[in-house]
Amino acid sequence: MPTRSRRPIPTWTTYQQSIGDRSDLFSTIRERWPIERALYPGSYLDLSPSTAISSVTYLDTDRRAAKFFAEPDLIRRDLNNKTTPAGINEVAFLSADYTSALPLEDDSFDLLISLYAGPVWDHCRKYLRPGGLLLANSSHGDASIAALDPDLTPIAAVHHRDSEYRIDEQDISEYLIPKSPAAADAQKIRDNGRGIVYTRTAFAYIFQLRMSSAMSMGPL
């Protein structure tokens, strides 16, 4: 009987054929704010935060993601010549459901990433430190839920065009305005899994978690 050839493990390089390279997004964010540790629930194979952020914890239930992150040689190859001058400090992976309790310390991350992954903010907010940032888009309504949370302040909109990302901090008051005021109901958003339709849209939004007594993360 002929032996069955082993299928190659999907990698970040192959995944970019579907989503493109988001490295510019995270380098732009890292240049603006002093982010050292990031948490990326629902990351699948997207390794782009590690091109700019020194410590990133990735989280997914997909077995293909677990296989990829279990191969340090694949990670090094995908990040070769793509990291910041400081190099790679830490790439960690948890094969887990982010809606469950995670073996992570509360208030321990500077950045929480929610891109096309569902209600990340509802389940992972406790891991973001006071003054930390949430990057969220409107997929599954996460940015819309965040916009209605009094503990978060919108500080920037992120635009994406031709593989480049631009952060707009100047006109943030012009974003996140619902076309229908009745749509601004967090529970309805959770129930239907769809974000609010806004009068002015962006690829994603950046929110800052309100401080208790500590100083804010960098000048705003």
Explain how this protein is built.
By secondary structure, the chain is α/β, with parallel strands linked by helices. The protein has helices at 12-19, 23-32, 63-69, 72-79, 120-124, 142-147, 186-192, and strands at 37-41, 55-60, 90-95, 109-114, 128-136, 152-161, 164-168, 204-209. Strands 3-2-1-4-5-8-6-7 form an 8-stranded mixed sheet. The chain starts with 11 loop residues before the first helix and ends in an 11-residue tail after the last strand. Residues 213-220 have low confidence and may be disordered.
Task: Name the features.
single chain, 220 residues, alpha/beta, 8-stranded mixed β-sheet, 7 helices, 23% helix
Radius of gyration: 18 Å
Uncertain stretches of 5 or more adjacent residues: 213-220
User: Major β-sheet, in short?
Assistant: 8 strands, mixed
Query: Helicity range of the residues?
Result: 10-25%
Beta-strand segment tally: 8
Structural class: alpha/beta
Helix and strand run: HHEEHHEEHEHEEHE
Distance between the termini: 66 Å
Individual helix count: 7
Q: How are the strands of the biggest sheet laid out side by side?
A: 3-2-1-4-5-8-6-7
Global morphology? globular
Mean pLDDT: 90
Our estimate of the beta-strand percent is 15-25%
